[in-house]
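Homework help board

Subject: predicted structure for assignment chain

Our instructor gave us this sequence and asked us to write out the predicted structure in token form, then describe one feature. I got the tokens but I'm not sure how to describe them. Can anyone check?
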Amino acid sequence: MTRGILLLLCLGLAACDVPPPSPQEAADRCEERARAAQGPSVGVTVGANSNTGGFGSASIGVSSDFLRGLDPVAVYESCVLRLTGETPIRPARLRVM
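My token output:
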């Protein structure tokens, strides 16, 4: 009984017609993914407040595209194609390494 309801719910969600992102939205989203494919991202936070004094934290992020050694430009182009069904409207704006 529960599986049947779950199956119907999944089929209902799959039938929802979600419009694809605009070419500009797709380019912006895919640039973020391509930037992540360029290398690890590092974040550092340092501060102080009057209640607890000093604090700090650090984080490192690594994307699966980077670990697989994929070309960031290829990641961008395939991402836009997958989201819109069209080629990118502009080249990827990536940081210089």
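Reply (TA_rk): Your tokens look well-formed. For the description, you could write something like this. Helices lie at 2-14, 23-38, 64-67, 72-84. That's the kind of observation they're looking for.
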